[in-house]
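[User] I wish I could look at a protein chain and see how it folds. I have put the entry right below:
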Amino acid sequence: MDKAITGLAPTADDIEAIARRALAALPEQFRAHLGDIALRVEEFADEEVLDALEIEDPFDLTGLYTGRPVGEKSVTDTAAMPDMIHLFRRPLLDEWCETGVTLEALVTHVLVHEVGHHFGLSDADMHALEAAAG
């Protein structure tokens, strides 16, 4: 049954599917370097992350990249944790309701921003990448 008809909020799986479509739409030169990045959709960032980023309201964080940007990686990084893009479902849903943009556009925007952190891109570069993906 269609969620729009039933009034059910999109699930973490729904958001992940949108994010995977957005990843697939990125230019090949970016996709080629994203194979090892894990994608995780969680309800909220945990308290440790919020504290480290000095964010008081968990609804203020819609996405996060954890890892080392491509330009900072070294062959000596053998024990490093995998790079990961976190998307936070509840803050995304709140922003979606507040802004009126489509959920696809919002998830793509947040995902591209986090991909940009992976590549060490500037905000202007991220905007150009988002335009290519969306």
The chain is about 50% helix and 10% strand.
